[in-house]
Amino acid sequence: MTAELDAIAQKMVADGKGILAADESSGTIKKRFDAIGVESTEENRRDYRELMFRSEAMTKYISGVILYEETIRQKAKDGTPLVSLIEQAGSIPGIKVDAGAKPMPFCPGETITEGLDGLAGRLKEFYDLGARFAKWRAVIDIDTAGGIPSYASIRANAHALARYAALCQEAKIVPIVEPEVLMDGSHDIDTCYRVTEWVLKTTFEELYYQRIRLEGMVLKPNMIVPGKKAAKQASVEEVAEKTVRVLKSCVPSAVPGIAFLSGGQSDEDATAHLDAMVKLGGLPWKLTYSYGRALQAAPQKAWAGKAENVAKAQAAFTHRAHMNSLAALGQWSSEEERKAA
Ligand code: 13P
What is the pLDDT of residues 51-92, one digit of tens each? Predict the structure, then answer.
């Protein structure tokens, strides 16, 4: 079992490949579709995700896809299960299994991610549907004036992540452990560093107590960036240097790979930051992408819900995935961006 888990984890972070986060919940995908004037029907959600899964990006740059529960059971227009499309492209199907971040008692403004009850049974079902990895997202906000984050929320979220990870590994499913420190707000980059360090230290402590096999997991963290509303924004070099520094001090080298979330960064920032980190070199783990918005904003805009735009949307998705693949190899440049566009 451990060899199987390790092999999947390694495949998820294979050289020049990364993960497509296409696991938007019904509420989130509606928000994305609203922005492009598309009604969020089951058929439209299927058509949109099918176009991505049939694109060239899948065979070349996407090691795995995180699916939402609806999608893992859906069939393409021609009746092929969407999971089969992903497998046929040589990519691995994965599944989001958390039930969302809910208000946490006695911690106003903070959330605890739910979904542990009955998880063992659901994981078995998802394994039978083809899922070989899973995702659970803990959400940590920053509001230093309001005493956020609290010890209580960091500890409880880390504990839930570790319990989820243990249930996954027992079910032969690789857990993506995602403790996301949000980039909302106006905090500076060093505050993001301190909070992320605290969150990662606590998360790995809980993973240790729950006996997680580090070789059979993938970490999905935020990068170290200032809040979106911060007066002082950071250079690409500063983000890369601080992110690598915090990861080196918190993430054991037994973890095979770290796949970042994009968290609201612009497409090109997310790519440039990853590239700069890989270029620093001397890293004990692979670094790659597990982007949602930073991979999908361009194809969503190009598609706009119209069948005649499918090829254009696929090209936009493949371009973004290609740029991120170059970044994961430390071979991206803004010239590449313009050349390929
Ligand atoms: P973003 O890259 O849009 O942050 O999404 C990644 C993800 O899976 C968040 O849970």
Answer: 999 999 999 999 999 999 999 999 999 999 999 999 999 999
Cross-strand pairs, 225: none
Q: pLDDT means per 10 residues in the chain (341 residues)?
A: 95 98 97 98 98 98 98 98 98 98 98 98 98 99 96 98 98 99 97 98 99 98 98 98 99 98 98 98 98 98 98 98 98 89 58
CB 115 within 8 A of CB 99: yes
Q: Which two tokens stand for residue 203?
A: 């998360």
DSSP string, 199-243: HHHHHHHHHHHTT--GGG-EE-PPP----TT-SS---HHHHHHHH
Q: 221-270 pLDDT, tens per residue?
A: 999 999 999 999 999 999 999 999 999 999 999 999 999 999 999 999 99
Which atom number of ligand 1 is nearest to the Cα of residue 262? 2
Chain centroid to Cα 227, Å, comes to: 19
Residue environment code for 114-125, b if the CB has 16+ CB neighbours within 10 A, otherwise e: ebbeebeebbee
Name residue 143's beta-bridge partners. 148
pTM for the structure as a whole = 0.98
104 to 96, 162, 167: CA distances (angstroms) = 21, 18, 23
**Can you tell me the distance from the alpha carbon of 100 to that of 136, in angstroms, rounded to the nearest whole number?**
9
32 lines ligand 1 (CB under 6 A): no
Q: At what angle do helices 267-280 and 236-250 cross, to 10 degrees?
A: 60
Whether the CB of 64 sits within 6 Å of ligand 1: no
- Count CB-CB contacts under 10 A for residue 227: 19
Q: Which of 79, 76, 28 is nearest to 300 (CA)?
A: 28
Pocket probe mutation, ligand 1, options 184, 220, 261, 324, max atoms within 8 Å of Cβ: 261
SS3 (DSSP) at 269: helix
